[in-house]
Amino acid sequence: MSPALEARGVSKSYDGVLIVDHVDLVAEVGRITVIIGPNGAGKTTLFNCLSGVEPADAGAVWHRGDEVTGWSSDALARRGLARTFQRSSVFPTLSVADNLRIAAENHRRRGILRGLAGLPDPGGRRAVVVVGAVLADLGLTDVAEVRAGVLPSGTLRLVELGRALCGEPDTLLLDEPASGLDDTETEEFHQLLHRLAARDLAVVMVEHDLALVHEAADVVYVMVSGSVAASGPPGEVLGRIDVRSLLFGRTA
Amino acid sequence: MTAGLDVVHVRAGYGAVEALHDVTLRFPLGSVVALLGRNGAGKSSLLRVVAGTLDVGSGRVTWRGRDITRLPPHQRAAAGLTVVPDDPNVFLDLSVAENLALFGHGAPPEPVYAAFPELAGKGGQRAGTLSGGERQMLALGRLLLRPGAALLLDEVSRGLSAGAVERLYRVLDDLATPDRTIVVVEQYQPNILRRADLIYVLSRGELAWAGEPSELTTGALPAALV
Amino acid sequence: MLTLELALAGLGIGSIAGLSGLGLLVTYRLTGVFNLAFGAIAMGVAYLLWQEVRIWHWPLALAALFDLVVVCPAFGVLIERLVFRPLQRRVATPAERLVASLGVLIVLLGAATLTWGAQARLDAPSLVPYRQLRLPGGAKLPLGTVVGLAVITVVVLGLAIGRRTSLGLQVRAVVERRELAQLQGLDANRVAALGWALGSTLAGVAGVLMAPTLRLQPFGFTLVMLETMAVVVVARLTSPVRAVVGGLFVGVAQAELTRVHLQGHARALLEAVTSNLFVVALLAAVLVVRRLDEAGGTDAGTTARLATRGELPPVRGWWMLAALALAAPLLFGAPDRRAALAVPALAIVLVSIVVVSGYSGQISLGQAGFAGLGALVAARLAAGTLPGLPRIPGVAVLVVAPLLVVPVGVLMGWPAIRRRGLFLAITTFALSVAMSRFVFEQPAATSGVLVHPPDAFGSDNNFYVLELLCLAVAFAIVRNLHHGRLGRALIAVRDDEAGALACGVDVRRLKLFVFAASSALAALGGALLAMGTRAFDPVAFDPIRGLIWFAAVVVFGIDSAPGAVIGAGLLIALDTSLPSGTSTLVIGCAALLLGRLPGGLLHSAHRLLERLLRRPAPSGPPPTPSRAIRLTSAGRAVARSIHRPPAAGGSAP
Ligand SMILES: Nc1ncnc2c1ncn2[C@@H]1O[C@H](COP(=O)(O)OP(=O)(O)OP(=O)(O)O)[C@@H](O)[C@H]1O
Ligand SMILES: [Mg+2]
After folding, report:
1. Are residues A144 and A102 part of one domain?
2. What is the tally of structural domains in chain B?
3. Mind telling me how many Å the CA of B1 is from chain A's nearest CA?
4. From the alpha carbon of A176, which atom of ligand 1 is closest?
5. CA-CA to A237 of 20 to 30 Å: which in A59, C9, C242, C440?
């Protein structure tokens, strides 16, 4: 079976500076792939290239075996490649439930004219069901009707995760999903990750919390200055002296 | 301990929703205080009240014995309060160097580049294009260039890599002097628990627990945090 | 062939345009507001100087000094304090501030017209004596041009130096994020007031320098200044030097073009192009320039947050008032009913603004262009004089004409699709100016056009009923667009475009679609408007009129269709019963108050009523949300869940 997501030689530069430098990455179904690395290593930029938010300068990306290089981010989202952002991108004026519902309603193209004519949306009922299930899964049912703008940042992380899940994706790109979560929430999030992987999702995430990485990751990529410095199972990679010095190296 | 920053019987909120219910907290000079609590407990609101960006419904805020409850934010800054607020905490349209010039009122930016080499060489880059962690480091520049006598930090370690968090706390260690109050808001951060003189835990807009880190072993803190 | 004489003559116009564009740009950089009122302030100061010198016989130098050193800064401080500070406080978007500046423009225009009348004055006092300077080589340059260029140089240099000072940095910080600047110890109010004082002084300088060259006339003077937006766009809102060069270039080109002589139609076209070269430049600029450097543009959400859904409780019950306003004319006597014919037609045009700007927050200032085009196309279709198309009989015109305008809307909307906020506003305005100058005002397009209602609807009563039917269709479109799936998607796009894309929303298609629907509606409204008056009047579809319409919609609540109807009713009622210009003044004044009226008049009236009808809830724990003040069902849920984590309260709205 082809991997859920595969990248070969992805590169991106800003103002002549290489930010992502020929990165190869494979994310398998049912696995949690974690990208770690110092601040400014290019992790978010890599995510942007993979999810179509920004075009890569070079390299190619495959999603479930089909090449999707250069696809726009909304088209990729409808294909099943969902993502969250490092800085919250929830819709502040909509309720939590409506935030999720947008993803549930738009992951398949549906006619605008149909909506304009006032005809009922064929997938509408299903969308409501999906939203309800995800809300329950993330423990957000209590705040379902709350306007997202008034919620604390930790809760917003969960809302954004829920939004990604409502598109019924097969591949999830999560950019620092646990930052801003408190202790209990982090633990719940850890459980959730495993439930997701068990549901045959491929999860790729950026994370700084090494304890969480240790517990959750199946595969770890260490990114430094735009390129992959090491990759492999967490026990192996995180124990390596050179990796530790890369991660804590700039202490001096 | 001398009078530092005192928040006395403060009520505050957003519209009809009250976020702080009659909260009284003291942050003495010479202490490092950790302000903990779950999401939505009211930590950020408390910092906003102290900084002057959230109006107080009732109660008082005093700083070194002076009532500053009605003082506008810029006069509080002049009185020695240095705030590193919630995101967005830098000027996105200005360059890194320009941000630092504002933070330091013209002081040379080198100490920041020394503490956070990730920013060195990026002086001309627009702050809006920095990575999440770099942006946070830039915001911390305030502490290195012109630290006031009261430092109020809102979840500043968020988005920082493990190595950078270590460096941040080393900076805070240097800043902890007898004539200064440091208030650190965090979700959960072992680093601050080790260094704090005093821990407050807020829960649902009220003080749920107060004590010293040594009391941690009793298990009281985890209970209050849940 | 270029000639030096003409080039030097062109420098005169060019320096004026350069100065005005420069002023606009500098004001924007100093205040974060794209001040549409810049031209109106210039006009006001020019008139004031005229009044002081010609009527009160003050000495010229003293009057000028008084105006520029006292009046201008004071006016700047005044509007900062009263209009823009409340907006800045609630972190209003550039778009909202744009509308507020539109309010200043409208009020100044209205006040000037009431005070000094609409006729042109040719005796504006000139600060610079008329004298020709002899250049080496024999060419002559008027002293005025030299002074203009000198002022430009001073401003550009001042800007280059000021930008690097710490004050310059403070100004930029306050413009970008007031609260953060305050935490940094900056007195944001003082810095902002300074920016406005400087900005309006610049407008004053531009005004008094230009008045002798241009005719002093409220609308004309203001519009000429607005056209110099072209050079601001060329400068991408950042580069003063480019703005000046752009202005000089267009001025010189205009002078050189007078040498070219053509025959027949080409000649008429050339004349139109030459006399409207700034409009052409503006159009070219908005099509060519890809991005504007908006202040606070990085993540600041440049899309208008004018709509209230989610932020304020929905208003209900105003349908009754709207329906009453619409039903009343059926009881009117003949002359009043004739006037009332304009109400549903105008309401449809206003609803078209609600469609495009209401939920998606895209600002379209160009609806007058589509409305005019709709009127023209409908008239020509009915007469069978639209090239390449047969005569369309009866009511079918009202279906075909809007459909014909849609491709124009889409074509012209295409560059606008990727744009947001300010840039979109400028683009649509430019399109409407161009349409007005090159279509509506061209005899070739409008001469011999006869407009009358479709055959079966000749009587006023029947026509009125037809209009009501059309309005009902417009309402249905708004309803379906703003509720359910499409409505949610539109709000998502407004709130966070990247987030919407990540949810799979096809943002481009959605925006284009909304644009198309809105232009069709505007065309329908325009056609009805012209049919009601039985004439095609270019003045009725003037770009400034489009601005006023937009302001009216914002004032009544940008996402409120009933608000649009009530607004249309009020505009027409005021226009028919009171001196012309009153309605404009009323709208302008309300726009000035936007900072204090979140959600518009309707919302504020609603809140006031609710507050009067209910007693405010007691405060204190446990927090009881008071329906009368702010809470929606969402808010109530917050309050309920505040005893249960994770709940609201820790983060600011
Ligand atoms: N538009 C841009 N112009 C210039 N440099 C940029 C731009 N965008 C990003 N960069 C630089 O690229 C580098 C990588 O940024 P990126 O956001 O990918 O880092 P990251 O690995 O996600 O870091 P963090 O852990 O802090 O989030 C940073 O040094 C940043 O300053
Ligand atoms: Mg990142």
Report:
1. yes
2. 1
3. 31
4. 27
5. A59
Same domain assignment for residues A136 and A199? no
Two structure tokens written together for C330: 């059926």
Distances (CA, A) of A154 to A99, A161, A182, B88, C264: 16, 11, 7, 16, 71
Tell me how close the Cα of A249 comes to any Cα of chain C, in angstroms: 32
What CATH number did the domain enclosing A219 receive? 3.40.50.300
pLDDT at B110: 93
Does pTM surpass 0.90? no
Q: Residue of the nearest CA to atom 27 in ligand 1?
A: B132
The three-point CA angle B210-B211-B212 to 5° equals 150
Q: Which CATH number fits the domain that encloses residue B225?
A: 3.40.50.300
- Residues in chain C closer than 8 A to B13 (CB atoms): 623, 649
| B221 inside domain | yes
- Check C296 against B93: CB less than 8 A apart: yes
Measuring CA to CA, which residue among C450, C326, C337, C472 is closest to residue C397?
C450
What one-character DSSP code corresponds to residue C137?
Answer: T
Cα A164 from chain centroid (whole Å): 8
Number of Cβ pairs closer than 8 Å across B and C? 145
d(CA A44, CA B159): 12
The fold of the C4-123+141-288 domain, in CATH, is ABC transporter involved in vitamin B12 uptake, BtuC (1.10.3470)
Written as six digits, the tokens of B177 are 């002097």
A110 and A121 co-located in one domain? yes
Cα–Cα separations (whole angstroms), residue C115 to C218, C223, C349, C580:
10, 19, 31, 13
Task: Dump pLDDT digits (tens) for C55-93.
Answer: 999 999 999 999 999 999 999 999 999 988 888 776 666
Residues A62 and A185 in one domain: yes
Report the number of distinct structural domains present in chain A: 2
SS3 A127: helix
Q: Where in chain C is the domain with CATH 1.10.3470?
A: 4-123+141-288, 304-607
Euclidean distance between CA atoms C624 and A88, whole angstroms = 29
Q: Determine, yes or no, domain membership for A85.
A: no
As a whole number of angstroms, the distance between CA C52 and CA C364 comes to 39
Same domain, A20 and A134: no
The ipTM is 0.93
Q: Which of A44, A49, A88 to mutate to test the pocket of ligand 1 (most atoms within 8 A of CB)?
A: A44
DSSP assignment, residue C131? -
Instruction: Decide if B136 is inside a domain.
Output: no
pLDDT score of A87 more than 50:
yes
Tell me the backbone φ, ψ of residue B214, rounded to 5 degrees.
-65, -25
Instruction: Evaluate whether residue A152 is within a structural domain.
Output: yes
- Alpha-carbon gap, residue C273 to C257, rounded angstroms: 9
Same domain, yes or no, for A163 and A183? no
Alpha helices, H only, chain A? 43-50, 73-79, 96-106, 112-116, 124-138, 153-166, 183-198, 210-216, 234-239, 241-248
Is C500–A121 a contact, with Cβ atoms under 8 angstroms apart? no
H/E segment holding residue B134: helix B132-145
- In this prediction, the residues of chain C whose per-residue pLDDT falls under 70 are 1-2, 90-95, 293-320, 329-335, 412-413, 416, 419-421, 598-599, 614-653
SS3 A201: coil
- Residue B154's domain spans which residues? 1-80+150-159+181-226
Given this model, what pLDDT does residue C304 score? Answer: 41
Which of these CATH numbers, 1.10.10, 3.90.550, 1.10.150, 1.10.3470, describes C304-607?
Answer: 1.10.3470
Which of C299, C480, C503 is closest, CB to CB, to A116?
Answer: C480
Euclidean distance between CA atoms C426 and C410, whole angstroms = 17
How many angstroms does the Cα of residue B36 sit away from the middle of ligand 2? 25
Q: Is A120 on the interface with B (CB under 8 A)?
A: no
User: A123 lies in which domain range?
Assistant: 90-168
